[in-house]
Write a structure and sequence with these properties.
The structure is a single chain. The chain is of the alpha+beta class. It is built from four helices and 35 strands. The protein has a four-stranded antiparallel β-sheet with strand order 4-3-6-7. The protein has a four-stranded antiparallel β-sheet with strand order 11-10-14-15, with no helix packed on it.
Length: about 550
């Protein structure tokens, strides 16, 4: 296609360029037709509860008067009226604002402006950011506890530390804690200083530390500020050794009894050098046993030839981490008469108080195994259909139910289906199911173990008349169109000039009667040569 001033392509390019420029001018005109707002505030430094002075500057860049101006907080409260602003004029407005702790932490403030311009009502958000130095906490309050459990002497130490990282000296700095009704105060804490409070207390029962820091500033001594730390539990040192002794028939010999002792440390201190011995026949069954605090249960098994009434009783001796000496004698258990014949019959019950939790995490599930048959159950395994094996037992005799609590991971709403597989002494395999447990994750549910709460922030967006991001995009598109069309026009104009020169040379040859061959040029030049030859041939025929 020939590209010249008269060509359709040239006209199309000019049309697109004109539309692009008109659109660009319309966008710029719309961007300029607005109320420009600048914000400043004083003083430069402040703390939560202080009142700052905010000065707004409104520049009416339009050709219309701006009327019915009202400014308010982002939630619509605290509305104030602003005088009308004539076209092209600037108005200033001053507003007092008490700064909250949340605003200092977010370093962000938003106000709302409503006005009438050219008969239309407009609403615009006025967001602005507090300086970065305002984001730093002016006062740091921390607490360290020696241990969540009292030491061997029954004492615990709590260390509180206060650091003044602000720009104003602190006055009347006091700390109070529910733990042992602690209270301490200092008169002042200068900028950049750090002070440590040490609190040693006797822990005779479960104790909760809930410290509160209260202070005022030299810049505003009549306003008091407070910082509260989360509760922290301190437990007394105590022992809690759970044990159960059971007897059943051996798998390998009809005349042999298997006696099992289950031990579990449910306390917050360690058991050391435990020894298990036979309290009836004498002799050591196991020694040098260590049970860490809140550890998983262990089983100690011993075989006896069945003699006489087949009664058994064991003794547990040792020491605790705090130095306490323990000497425990179990109850006397008898070999079940029916253990030599008959069949076991286990039932399984599972339950949890965490059927509705607030988020994914670990929940405790308790089991109860009850053997109502006439023989002991062996090789007992409790499992969950999805998670697999949960726990197992060597033997479950008839009589007293066996209990156990385990942790189960919950990542989504699910149904827990637990079952128990076991064998009889003769090797016959049987199973029993517990009622299913439905666990759901929903707001307001219990807090599972091993999770942390998340903090959410809401950030508002501006709803002004002009959108600077859209304007920037349109400007970039318009500039790109201008550059492309300019390049096309430059190239086409050079080709047009060259072709005109070729046509002029051809006409000159025709006029001078030159019949020589014209030099080869571009396709447009060759077209001009052919045209000149046709004109020359017609002339010669005449």
């Amino acid at each position: 296609m020939r590209f010249s001033v008269e060509s359709p392509l040239y006209r199309l390019c000019c049309t697109v360029l004109s539309i692009g420029f008109l659109f660009l001018f319309a966008v710029i005109a719309e961007a300029d037709s607005d109320i420009d707002i600048t914000v400043a505030y004083s003083p430069d430094t402040f703390q939560a509860g202080d009142t700052i002075t905010i000065q707004f500057s409104f520049n009416n860049t339009t050709e219309y008067d701006c009327t019915e101006l009202y400014i308010s907080n982002a939630d619509g409260s605290g509305q104030e009226h602003i005088e009308d602003i004539a076209a092209g004029e600037i108005a200033r407005f001053t507003r007092k604002h008490p700064v909250s702790t949340e605003e200092i932490e977010d370093a962000y403030l938003v106000f709302s402006l409503r006005y009438i311009l050219d008969g239309e009502t407009h609403e615009k958000n006025i967001p602005f950011t507090l300086r970065s130095e305002m984001q730093e906490a002016s006062v740091e309050f921390t607490r360290r506890i020696s241990a969540p459990v009292a030491n061997q002497t029954g004492k615990a130490t709590i260390v509180y530390e206060v650091y003044n990282g602000g720009t104003s000296d602190l006055r009347s700095v006091s700390i109070s804690d529910t733990a042992d009704h602690y209270r301490e105060q200092i008169d002042s804490l200068f900028v950049g200083e750090r002070h440590t409070f040490v609190h040693t207390l006797d822990v005779v029962a479960d104790t909760v530390s809930s410290p509160i820091l209260i202070y005022s500033t030299e810049a505003n001594p009549d306003v008091y500020h407070s910082i509260t730390l989360e509760d922290a539990a301190i437990a007394p040192m105590h022992g809690n050794l759970e044990y159960v002794l059971i007897a059943g028939h051996s798998l390998h010999s009809a005349d042999t009894a298997e006696v099992v002792l289950r031990l579990k440390n449910a306390s917050n201190q360690e058991y050391r050098s435990l020894t298990v011995s036979d309290d009836i026949l004498g002799g050591v069954i196991a020694d040098s046993i260590t049970l860490p605090s809140e550890s998983e249960p262990i089983e100690i098994t011993h075989s006896y030839p069945i003699r006489g009434d087949a009664t058994y009783r064991w003794r547990i001796t040792g020491t605790t981490l705090s130095g306490d000496v323990i000497d425990i004698v179990t109850e006397t258990v008898e070999m079940p008469i029916s253990a030599k014949s008959g069949k076991p019959s286990l039932s399984l019950r599972a339950n949890t108080a965490f059927e509705e939790i607030s988020k994914a995490g670990v929940i405790p599930v308790s089991f109860e195994l009850n053997n109502t048959g006439s023989a002991s159950a062996v090789k007992v395994v409790v499992s969950e259909e999805t998670d697999g094996e949960i726990c197992k037992f060597t033997i479950i005799p008839t009589g007293t139910p066996t209990t156990r609590t385990v942790d189960v991971q919950i990542d989504d709403d699910r149904t827990l289906q637990f079952l128990v597989d076991y064998e009889s002494i003769e090797g016959e395999t049987q199973s029993a199911y517990a009622d299913p447990i439905n666990v759901s994750i929903a707001r307001g549910g219990l807090e599972p173990e091993g999770t942390q709460r998340e903090r959410f922030f809401f950030v508002g967006t501006s709803t002004g008349v002009a959108n600077p991001q859209i304007m920037t995009i349109f400007i970039a598109i318009a500039v790109s169109v201008v550059v492309i069309l300019s390049f096309i026009l430059i190239v086409s104009s050079r080709r047009a000039r060259f072709n005109r020169k070729v046509e002029a040379a051809a006409r000159k040859q025709l006029t001078n009667g030159d019949t020589g061959k014209l030099p080869r040029t571009s396709s447009s030049g060759r077209n001009a040569q052919r045209k000149a030859r046709r004109m020359r041939n017609r002339t010669e025929r005449r």
